[in-house]
From TrEMBL:
This is Twin-arginine translocation pathway signal. Pfam families: DUF1501. It comes from the Bacteria. InterPro entries: DUF1501 (IPR010869), TAT_signal (IPR006311).
Length: 426
């Protein structure tokens, strides 16, 4: 029998160890077993048992056509500056009154959200932003991901949470991004976070595709034992072992999840597909604290009405069906859903019946633990910035701080590097 070496085995199995870096953000680029990363059973690391599901609305959601003013000067200004883009008042779903006495409503494609709101399970946080807004996608995303308007950091706000709360964690699925790429929010100094686009395809692959089980066992034998005297190799070995173990456990999660015939995840809706995978991971009791998904396409510079309407419909339907699944699985009490987008849009429509990059906008939370309602005041549409942006009223780090302290139960100051006022949606 031919002696199997690590080098020979890795070459035969197609498992390539690329240029090694030490940053957690490089993890998913360094190792390849199918598509991305990891998992182990983690009941002992589940902390308070709660999970945060983050939905990124990528591109800059138009908050003014999402939460719409229905009364007073703001409503008049909204329709004056958006003669073609404004949602007809008769189509707007009445929601409630904000802290400034403004009557507000939802885009008609968010009708499902009215049900959450009426149940007290949805919070609308108004005019969220920061000083001196950055109008580039890259710049503003960095600020939101890292919770740092002043300077760039090496970690994201959620990565900072993971490092703080779980410094000695050995659960590779402590956090998972349902994504091809690791979001900057989840970049951490110590915690490795997988980006898994499709957990069914996330498996140990060999080339050629034969003797898979035998090669799996060889891989385990070669990588199970620690090699502390070789620090760099030990780091690679541990990542490789975690990745392999994760591929096995994620397949178990996928296979053990039994979908309900009464709950219809629309396969044409990418957010719904991602959230169903999130439900599979949560149902497997992996001890996952953060699940991260995205919906792209919100950069609506032209032909905004139909494009934005479709996106909001997909968003509402995906959250609704995900919530139904969580209720069925008995997990709803332990899940908080939050949204964020890197900026809002300009108040004034452009010549292409779209909008340019703006600043402050609304964010949304959903869950059984949410104190439902409208928090803060609608953006002032009369007194705009010198570049015609509505000014923010709530610092986005107050949004984060509330979730960190009241849901994830860590000291937000340690993560955010400062003190920010809490918002009473939790």
């Amino acid at each position: 029998m031919t002696r199997t070496t690590r080098r020979g085995f890795l070459k035969q199995s197609g498992f390539m160890l690329l240029t090694i870096g030490v940053g957690a953000g490089a993890f998913h680029r360094q190792l390849r077993v199918a598509e991305s990363s990891v998992l182990t059973r983690g009941a002992g690391l589940s902390g308070n048992g709660r999970t945060l599901v983050v939905i990124q609305l990528s591109g800059g959601n138009d908050g003014l056509n999402t939460v719409i003013p229905l009364s007073g000067a703001y409503a008049s200004q909204y329709r004056t500056l958006r003669p073609r883009l404004a949602i007809p008042e008769a189509d707007v779903i009445p929601l409630g009154t904000d802290a400034g006495g403004h009557q507000l409503g939802l885009h008609p494609n968010l009708e499902l959200w009215k049900w959450f709101y009426d149940q007290g399970r949805m919070g609308v946080i108004q005019a969220v932003g920061y000083d001196t807004p950055n109008h580039s996608h890259e710049g503003s995303m960095r600020i939101w991901h890292q919770a740092s308007p002043e300077r760039a950091r090496t970690t994201g706000w959620l990565g900072g949470y993971l490092d703080l709360a779980f410094p000695a964690q050995d659960n590779p699925l402590l956090s998972v991004a349902i994504s091809k790429h690791l979001p900057m929010s989840l970049q951490a100094a110590q915690t490795r976070v997988p980006a898994v686009d499709n957990i069914k395809q996330y498996r140990f692959k060999v080339q050629p595709s034969k003797d898979t089980e035998a090669r799996r066992q060889v891989f385990l034998a070669l990588h199970r034992e620690a090699v502390p005297e070789h620090a760099l190799y030990e780091q690679v070995r541990q990542m490789a072992f975690d990745t392999f173990e994760g591929s096995v456990r994620l397949q178990e999660a996928s296979e053990s999840y039994v979908p309900s015939p009464d709950i219809d995840y629309d396969r044409s809706n990418p957010l719904a597909r991602a959230l169903q995978q999130a439900a599979q991971i949560m149902a497997s009791d992996a001890g996952t604290k953060i699940l991260y998904v995205s919906l792209n396409g919100f950069d609506t510079h032209g032909t905004q009405r139909p494009r934005h309407a479709k996106l909001l419909g997909m968003l509402a339907e995906a959250i609704d069906v995900f919530d139904q699944d969580l209720q069925r699985l008995g997990l709803a009490d332990d899940v908080l859903i939050m949204t964020w987008s890197e900026f809002g849009r300009k108040v004034r429509e452009n010549g292409n019946v779209g909008t340019g990059h703006g600043a402050a906008g609304p964010q949304f939370v959903f869950g059984n633990a949410v104190n439902g309602g409208i928090f803060g005041e609608h953006p002032d549409l009369i007194h705009l910035s010198d570049v015609d942006d509505p000014l923010y009223r709530i610092d986005f780090r107050s949004y984060y701080a509330t979730i960190l302290e009241r849901w994830l139960e860590v000291d937000a100051r340690e993560v955010l590097g400062g003190t920010f006022e809490f918002i009473d949606f939790l």
